[in-house]
Write a structure and sequence with these properties.
The structure holds 2 protein chains of 2 kinds. In chain A, strands 2, 4, 5, 9, 10 and 11 form a 6-stranded mixed sheet that branches. A 5-stranded antiparallel sheet of chain A has the order 1-3-8-7-6, with no helix packed on it. By secondary structure, chain A is mostly beta strands. The termini of chain A are far apart. Helices cover 0% and strands 59% of the residues of chain A. In chain B, strand 4 and strand 5 form a beta hairpin. Chain B is globular and about 40 Å long. By secondary structure, chain B is mainly β. The chains are: A mainly beta, B mainly beta. Chains A and B meet through strand 4, strand 5, strand 9 and strand 10 of A and strand 4, strand 5 and strand 9 of B.
Chain lengths: 111, 113
């Protein structure tokens, strides 16, 4: 079993839809949770970064962490065609240098 | 002004050859990484250096050898290339141990024929 599991998709939604992307994990020591967005033929870029449990909102994006269920989510409101990309979750244990990534979910937002 | 730059962006070579990929960051970060991304987009950590010292060395064949001449540079040399080495190799850097953001380069796409 991988430490971080993520549905690879692809996930296709119409423009304006609310998108929900999820990851589950097995290591209860993870404390930092991140979402990266990767456009085709580009490097990943950080979208959201949260510490421990709770919600964090930034514009159309909301990240949720439920440590008791070992489950994290990224919600995208009013999705746009420009949101079409691969979304990777990543996790880290405090005080370590190692980041573990999910396999990424490919999202297509149709105009 | 590119924060993390990798060269070359594309590399096509024959099995058995030796090749190198170079990475430089101008962010003043202490920690640098090499990740391998396969065709299914899975990002797997390979190596990490902190201030020129190797701190992460995953189960990578010893045909792969990283080198960090200074904390702004991290190179990756691959000997005796195999078909399974075909992937996109990403360099990344981070400021300090408890900050989350990794800054990635644009990747070096290696194709072994």
């Amino acid at each position: 079993q991988k430490e971080v599991e993520q549905d690879p998709g692809p996930l296709s939604v119409p423009e304006g839809a609310i998108v929900s992307l999820n990851c589950t994990y097995s290591n209860s020591a993870f404390q930092y949770f991140m979402w990266y967005r990767q456009y085709s033929r580009k490097g990943p870029e950080l979208l959201m970064y949260t510490y421990s449990s709770g919600n964090k909102e930034d514009g159309r994006f909301t990240a949720q962490v439920d440590k008791s269920s070992k489950y994290i989510s990224l919600f995208i409101r009013d999705s746009q065609p420009s949101d079409s990309a691969t979304y990777l979750c990543a996790m880290q244990t405090s005080g370590t240098y190692k980041y573990i990534f999910g396999t990424g979910t490919r999202l297509k937002v149709l105009a | 002004d590119t924060a993390v730059s990798q060269t070359p962006k594309y590399l096509v070579t024959q099995m058995g050859n030796d090749k190198s990929i170079k990475c430089e960051q101008n962010l003043g970060h202490d920690t640098m990484y090499w990740y391998k991304q396969d065709s299914k987009k899975f990002l797997k950590i390979m190596f990490s250096y902190n201030n020129k010292e190797l701190i992460i060395n995953e189960t990578v064949p010893n045909r792969f050898s990283p080198k960090s001449p200074d904390k702004a540079h991290l190179n990756l040399h691959i000997n005796s290339l195999e078909l399974g080495d075909s992937a996109v190799y990403f360099c990344a850097s981070r400021a300090s141990v408890n900050t989350g953001e990794l800054f990635f380069g644009e990747g070096s796409r290696l194709t072994v024929l």
